[in-house]
Amino acid sequence: MNIGNLTITKNITESWTAVFNMTMNTVTDKTKTEVSRNDDYRLRIILLYVQPIVGILGMVANILTFAMLIKSGLKKPSNIIIFGLTLADCFLLITPINIFDLTARFLHSKETANYFGWECSEKLARFLSVVNRVLTTLHYWGGFAGTGLPVVITLERIFAVFFPMKFATIVTSRRAILAVVSVWLFWGPWACFSAFLRDFRYTVLPSGQSIGYEKSAELLISNFLVVQTLNRYVFNFLSSIVPVSIVTFGCVMIGVKVKHSLLQRQRMSSAKKTKRPSLKTTRTLVAIALIFATVHGTYFTMTCAMVDQYINDTTFSLVLDEIKLTLIYVCGSCNFFVYVLLNSKFRNILIGMFQKTHSELA
């Protein structure tokens, strides 16, 4: 996650032309314009079509997950953690379907094309700005919390697999709630701080067109290096490589332990029957953790691999950013399908919900 993308509005055509002026002086103006237009077209396709479709489908899927969890019961620690993760995914998916953000970005005349804002009265524009900032803050809060909860899932499964006899004593519903709330509280201040990195302005252009827009706040400008350093080397690190590493290593440990336990059972002719956590629960939760590690690991790798493009500030880096964010949105949308495909209990609950709805309509 990168809050820096919220604070700077760029003129795509100008930034692309500037790069070409430095690197390809022999390219004609017509060619540069065509390339710029193509990149702008790609951004529009991603932001206006691809991401909203993913966001809508993901929001519907997460709402169904909430319904299944309520039917299943929220006393089970794993269900409590899944509930927290589903809430984080819902918050994450606010931005791709945030019409306030999309209108501020794209609904402009030629005179106001360089602004991130709304062409309306000052009071209405200010209201839209506040609503958009609240929704964006929730988006970042959910995005950051969603990187910590897979770690909680992994640790919960480690206790279930390595300490099955003591699992019910170690992992309780109260401790699961405490772990989920702790993750949300940890990321809350940083997510809320991002809301203060933009200021609202209202201006009347020489053409007579009025617009309320957002620009980088004085707080960001005067502390840019501090904010950039915290964002890039602390919070991005804590929301990418740290959870990905913990989740990956934990899943490997769980896989090795489960395989070893199965082999031991096969070798024992008369093993004692002991109460162990369901393997389907482990399979489901590990699948969720692995999907998270794969997608966020890919996100981090792509960011590191394309650092030159970010330094040169090319339009290609903007397109790449949105492609990476689309992967994150897909990750926040697919957990529902994992629950239904790998866990028969959730699948039966979902079928029962639709059968009940069908009978009521009939």
Question: Can you give a write-up of this model?
Answer:
This protein is mainly alpha-helical and 362 residues long. It has 15 helices and three strands. Strand 2 (198-204) and strand 3 (210-216) form a beta hairpin. Helix 2 crosses helix 14 (335-342) and helix 2 packs across helix 15 (344-361). The longest helix has 44 residues, at 29-72. It is elongated. Mean pLDDT is 81; it is low at 2-37.
Strand order of the largest sheet: 1-3-2
Helix-strand makeup class: mainly alpha
Biggest beta sheet attributes: 3 strands, antiparallel
Query: From N to C, what is the helix and strand string?
Result: HHHHEHHHEEHHHHHHHH
- β-strand percent reads under 5%
Separation of termini?
46 Å
Total beta strands = 3
Q: What is the helix content? A: over 70%
Form type: elongated
Low-confidence segments, ≥5 residues, pLDDT <50? 2-37
What is the averaged pLDDT score?
81
Using only CA atoms, what is the Rg?
24 Å
Number of helices: 15
Protein name: G-protein coupled receptor daf-37-like
Keywords: G-protein coupled receptor, Membrane, Receptor, Transducer, Transmembrane, Transmembrane helix
Transmembrane segments: 46-68, 80-100, 176-197, 233-258, 285-311, 323-342
Subcellular location: Membrane
